[in-house]
Amino acid sequence: MPALLELEAEYGKAKEDRAFKNELELLQSTYIGRPTSLYFAKRLTDHLDGAKIYLKREDLAHTGAHKINNAIGQVLLAKKMGKKRVIAETGAGQHGVATATGAALCGLECEIYMGSIDIKRQALNVFRMKLLGAKVNEVSIGSQTLKDAINESMRDWTTNVRTTHYVLGTVFGPHPFPSIVRDFQAVIGKEAKRQILKAEGRLPDYLIACVGGGSNAMGLFNEFLSDDIKMIGVEAGGKGIEGGEHAARFAGGSIGVLQGCKTYLLQDNDGNVLETHSVSAGLDYASVGPQHAFFKDSGRIEYTYAVDAEALAAFELLSRTEGIIPALESAHAIAEVAKLAPRLPKDKIIIVNLSGRGDKDVQQVAKIKGIEIC
Amino acid sequence: MNRIDKTFRRLKETDKKAFIPYIMAGDPDIDKTMEHILMLEECGADIIELGVPFSDPVADGPTIQRAAERALAAGVSLRKMLVFMADLRKRSQVPIIFMTYYNPIYKYGEEVFVTDAANAGVDGFIIPDLPPEEAGSLRKSCRSKGLDTIFLVAPTSTEERMKSIASASKGFIYYVSMTGITGTKLSLEDHFRNHIGRLKELSGKPIAIGFGISTPDDARSMASVADGVIVGSAIVKKFHEDPGNAREFIKKLREAV
Questions:
Q1: Cα A38 from Cα A327, distance rounded (Å)
Q2: Fewer CB under 10 Å: which end of chain A, C or N?
């Protein structure tokens, strides 16, 4: 708690600090490569023969995913707070890479926690983190995925709080983390709004994003919350909801308290957290950010899921129609687009958040298809 | 006056310190847990902290994490531990504090849980992922049933925070001896001594120190600054790896406190 109170106070100050904002904005434009483009996916639109589809290209941000927006913001905050060391959890490895990148940029020591299973399926990102000078700690307890990596990061943080800032990677965990991460990701929606107004002269009809912890979705949606726009969050349906092998917290979970927040959770009758499954490491998580739980209950955001097979099909669909290989996480959002767009008239507009690029997943997809590539 | 208050009063009158061992319920099974509790009491434990396993024990180190995994595999749950407690109370009146996490209690239903726990003979709770400001309703239920809610103070806690924890904590206050504790040579830094001293002054409640106390020597020096000493991982480890010598180890800890 003392660490959270300190963080809340320091973040409150930083938010109002002109110099902090200038430094962040400069890095956003010159280092991250913002604004990322809003791209009209004409061939995908033609192929699906329905609503117009725009991709918000977070895959083009430095390090290949939206995670860098939050990581750079929090690493700057850590530096401002006088911390010498940053730690982070990672599932797919994108947030780990982003944090390691930020730490290298600011000259901070960096350690990343990652579950054993994720280390195996995201070997490329593990090596990237090491190249960037971070130490990668394997978490071999529990389900050995993102959830356990968060537990281990929290343990590290409580032990080393005097020197260390915990760069939590999604809109999750105890306050103020969900707010901090939302604010640093909100740039996605702010840009998208400006860009769609320029391209179409009006706001879109639908926003679609995948939801693991939910930071890319929150980043896109936040700016549009008071507009008359439908928003859809797409969870990982894994092998299907019925068999229990999934990570669809809204479809298959109930309210609980985990890792410092009250939200929807996949749990058993005793309140123990259940194992999850998804082809995508970044969505393979038993819980979801509390802001999403709020918008689920208020009805402002609709939540659905895509199963592994649908995500894999969308992964190939986008690659072939647009020459863009999406991250498997983002492929879940594309899968929903593939279902929704054909049912809509051609004058409707969808913006989908292409939260990351798929280079990291190529090896795993090859393996699933039974193809040996190295 | 409940069992925990009585214990601290008795100790104060005889100028002694509380020895509070921790074990994980159901590690390796529930029958052994019964044996272990009775043995701890026989060896002079004043209060026993009974870990109830949770899938995501964020406040625990590797030893207790593994113990929780074993206990969950053995099928232990909050519900089963209440049945166990009713059984235990036929054989022992040693004060028992459940240490668990908030979600199992939330899932059970706070108020029903507190009632059931009181009926089963539980004396209090330590819930490390529930800060006092989020514990209003649980504290209220516990107060009405005479159960204690014990909160944690860290060496990094500010004066203001110490005050709020001190007023929320019933039974005793759990002081987390966070840094530089494990190992043979234990140094009681001035900051640490002053911090605990200040906490004593403003709370007027017993203070027990825990986290990382692994040897009789550690226990002895911690007992010199507090009203009680909590030993967890070292005992869990002993029962798991070297159960034959557990009794002797526990006796040594008891003597040191």
A1: 17
A2: C
**Can you tell me the ipTM of this complex?**
0.93
* pTM: predicted TM-score of the whole model, two decimal places: 0.94
Closest CA to B130 of A259, A246, A38: A259
Residues of B in contact with A2 (CB under 8 A): 154, 156-158, 161
pLDDT per position as a tens digit, A215-265? 999 999 999 999 999 999 999 999 999 889 999 999 999 999 999 999 999
Q: Residue B214 belongs to what domain range?
A: 3-256
Average pLDDT of chain A is 96
Which residues are registered as beta bridge partners of A256?
Answer: A263
CB-facing half-sphere around the CA of B48: CA atoms within 13 A: 30
CA A199 and chain centroid, separation = 26
Q: Which of A56, A28, A367 minimizes the C-alpha distance to A209?
A: A56
In whole angstroms, how far apart are CA A366 and each of A120, A121, A122, A359, A374? 14, 12, 13, 12, 10
From the number of C-beta atoms within 10 Å of its C-beta (0-12, 13-18, 19+), residue A231 rates as: buried
Q: Which amino acid would we find at residue A96?
A: G
List residues of B whose CB lies inside 8 A of any A CB: 54-59, 61-62, 65-66, 69, 72, 77-79, 102-108, 129, 131, 154, 156-158, 161, 178-179
Report the domain count for chain B.
1
∠ Cα A56 A57 A62 (to 5°): 140
Query: Which residues on neighbouring strands pair with residue A52, listed in sequence order?
Result: A349
Cβ–Cβ below 8 Å for A257 and B72 = no
CA dihedral over B50, B55, B61, B62, signed as positive or negative: positive
